[in-house]
Amino acid sequence: MRIAVFSTYTYDEAYLNRFNTGHELTFFVLPLNEQTAALTKDFDAICIFVNDTVNKDVLAILHENGVRLVVLRCAGFNNVDIAAATTLGIPVLRVPAYSPEAVAEHAMALILTLNRKTHKAYNRVREGNFSLEKLMGFNLHQRKVAVIGTGNIGRAFCNILRGFGCKISAFDIYPDQELAAAGVTYGSLEETLADADIVSLHCPLMDSTHQMINADSLKLFKKGAMLINTSRGGLINTMDVIAALKHGQLGYLGLDVYEQEGKLFFQDYSEDVIQDEMILRLISFPNVLITSHQGFFTQEAMEQIATTTFRNIDAFASKADLHNQVVIG
Ligand code: NAI
């Protein structure tokens, strides 16, 4: 099949070329959106990532251009209008799981860095400053961690937390019985947020979870708690989180995702004037750590993404069952 691959960097090309099962791939660095959708003419399929936009308008252009398939190189599909794709008869296939440990380990990396301030210590020591002033952290052992969403990633994260000796409380609309049997305490969202030292988000972005962390829910947090979001930026209201950081209700913030990341993440703006006031405000806090959506970025995950993507394309090409199709409901 002729496939237009959007939002690609050197690492995407390397892994997709390595695991290609015989398709004609054309790589575009550009993201797919209303402005770039015209590039899809004469392609059979498009292959996209987290910050490509496949809304109703883009789908109409894809359909007109003869595109018959959308394949996502990720698990989340909040950037695709599934209902509109279904109406047009364009299946949307995704990679439902790729090394959940990669994201879970990154969430723990954010926690450890924010808490023990290793990023600051690294810079201090390089400048000959061996002072410990303002580097004090806290033990994770026996601390209470709230895990919101205990699917593939949340489960892997709980298992890491168990190794650290944390007390784990969780909220999921479908509690995991194995985790409950292993000592994870499930409760309502309000109960779970209430007395946690650390809150980590691992549920998908949907209408029901959009901005679930907002001025009201932040009031439930223990004063000075740490919030970690490696899931999707839209789960939190960033302005409300900034306000909570300003008056100390939130003690630490670790983000791998950001509401407006589409305009920034994966690009080098080191020589430009960044226009996004919210991210500039976030960067200015000493207790905020931001990474640009790199939770998934391990060798193992890239290999799984590439192999599953081609398995999905091959299934469509050979009219086999589409196990990884995103369906409404
Ligand atoms: P999953 O589908 O295995 O698990 C999601 C869990 O969230 C399920 O147990 C589900 O029941 C639960 N859930 C659904 N609605 C909920 C609600 N309203 N409240 C609480 N829990 C709810 O998904 P997985 O693989 O664990 O991924 C989770 C999210 O992580 C993805 O949706 C994606 O947004 C994000 N992600 C981030 C990556 C990164 O690089 N930072 C990479 C991969 C995924």
TrEMBL record:
The keyword Transferase does not apply. Signal peptide: none annotated. The keyword Oxidoreductase applies. Residues 5-326 form the D-isomer specific 2-hydroxyacid dehydrogenase catalytic domain. SUPFAM superfamilies: Formate/glycerate dehydrogenase catalytic domain-like, NAD(P)-binding Rossmann-fold domains. Pfam families: 2-Hacid_dh, 2-Hacid_dh_C. Belongs to the D-isomer specific 2-hydroxyacid dehydrogenase family. GO terms for molecular function: NAD binding; oxidoreductase activity, acting on the CH-OH group of donors, NAD or NADP as acceptor. It comes from the Bacteria. This is Lactate dehydrogenase. Residues 108-295 form the D-isomer specific 2-hydroxyacid dehydrogenase NAD-binding domain. Keywords: NAD, Oxidoreductase.
